[in-house]
Amino acid sequence: MKLKFHNNSICEERMSDTAKKSSAVRDFWFTDIFVIIFFIITAVTGLFLFRRDLMKTIENRDAEPVGTIVIRNNVVQRRHEDRMVWDRLYADSFVYSGDLIRAAEISSASINIEENKISLNENTLIRVQHSADRIDQFEVELKEGNLSLTSEKGSSAIMLNLMGNQVYTAPGTVLNAEASEEGIAVQVTEGSAEIVSGGQTKEISEGNMIAKDTRGVERIIPAAVVRRPAPNASYLKSNDELLLVNFVWNRINLAADDKLRLEISGDRSFSQGVHKVEGLGSEAQAAFDIGLWHWRLYIGETVLSTGQLTVADGSGPELLSPVANSVFRYKGSLPQLRFQWAERKGASNYIIEVSDTPEFESINVSRQSAASSFIYSGLGAGTWYWRVKPVFSSVYEGGTAYSDSSLFKIEEVQIQQGTAASASAVAVLEIEIPEPAPVSRIPVPIPPAPVTRAPEPQPAQGSSPPAVAMTRNRPPSRRLYNVRPGDTLVRIATQVYGDYFQWRKIFEANDIENPDLIYVDQVLFIP
């Protein structure tokens, strides 16, 4: 009897273990099935979103763009309406109604919408769309950040939406708008604008501003509305002299004896190379070298206004090919020549001219090229002179200049009688390139850092305002390098110097904030 009871107990234990194992197997299968179903749903959802974005992209090929990206610095992205994917934008990229456009940190962009220029500063997000009230009007919703609007005379009207406040601009208006956690602010540099909120309309005249908190209550704060230079101004410098820029501003809610301080730097964070002019009333002057410059106005330790301006190199580029004084000898067909020159950062295209006189009294060839090269095969025997001038978009103020001319010769080689070869078989028989002149290795002195002198008390009416010279502390070399994907300072130094330890030269010459952060298409000075 005991033995029988013992066997029954063992059987019950085994049955219990089997039941537990069966339950564990069922739980295991349920978990597997749940994981598989989850991944299937995720994959199907991803494919659906990808297909929808792809169809949107295909549909947008037939859509009518409302604007174009004119200038783009670093990371600027666009997301089409009802899409999840962000596209990276470049100069000449199209902008469509409903697009979200954002400029990342240390980035900026300029958009042209029917002759209205909208400039985005870093960390700015906007939406561009047709106005719901008027089909011929565009609405730009500023979700966060800072933008400037320049509306040409005769252009279509633009309405800004700032946290529910509608700002209507007239043609010819130039203004700056900001949206942040503290609220909104609108400064009108030229023309006038109207701000509508809660059924009430208020005009903002030239040289004035309006600031509101997040509840829509107007704030009375000290400010300086900078009328010159224009917001995000872009200038061209076509010679070796520094570009003189006048700063003029209106004082808002400031006492008559309050003196301001203007700080300018090539560094966005103003952590190094800061130039100061103190004791200012309502104007100042600064002379700028080529580059991107940042400025801000202070009263005490309070920032009243900030901005940036760009000075681009509008001088004639270096001519690379044909090499000066080279000789092309041909027989049969005319030689095919490749004209090539150094790029100018920011140039939209180039004008190339070829003449048979050094004064270019008669122009034998005149072409416009978007690239920094041009192929031509219509020149015969003779001595030829050529030159190139960069062309920039209309957002830049100032003019450009032609390069110094360079000459080359073309000579025809006579075909000897009785030669069986076809006359057109060989186009160019010989190219004679002169040996470069020996260069003496003379050390090039580095110019000293610019010295800023404190201005005298505010000048009397009609006298010149205080001035500061803005130059970069780098050798006068004009050698440039365009950053390519995968580049680092170490890799660039290895390529141009053959020594990766020289990366610090490039780092210091370009005022780079972080040596690990350089960007594709960034132009670096190579000292």
Question: What's this, in brief?
Answer:
The chain has 527 residues and is mostly beta strands. It has five domains: 1-51; 67-221, Jelly Rolls (Sandwich); 236-247 and 258-313 and 462-470, Immunoglobulin-like (Sandwich), CATH 2.60.40; 319-432, Immunoglobulin-like, CATH 2.60.40.10; 480-525, LysM domain (Membrane-bound Lytic Murein Transglycosylase D, Chain A, Roll), CATH 3.10.350.10.
Task: Describe the protein in words.
The chain is mostly beta strands and 527 residues long. It folds into five domains: 1-51; 67-221, Sandwich (Jelly Rolls); 236-247 and 258-313 and 462-470, Immunoglobulin-like (Sandwich), CATH 2.60.40; 319-432, Sandwich (Immunoglobulin-like), CATH 2.60.40; 480-525, Membrane-bound Lytic Murein Transglycosylase D, Chain A, CATH 3.10.350.10. It is built from three helices and 38 strands. It has a 17-stranded mixed beta sheet that branches.
* Helix residue percentage: 10-25%
Largest sheet at a glance?
17 strands, mixed
Poorly predicted ranges (pLDDT <50, ≥5 residues)?
A: 1-6, 419-428, 439-462, 474-478
Structural class: mainly beta
CATH architecture of the largest domain: Sandwich
Number of helices, counting only DSSP H or I runs of 4 residues or more: 3
Mean pLDDT: 80
Instruction: Please report which band the strand proportion falls in: under 5%, 5-15%, 15-25%, 25-35%, 35-45% or over 45%.
Output: 35-45%
CATH topology of the largest domain: Jelly Rolls
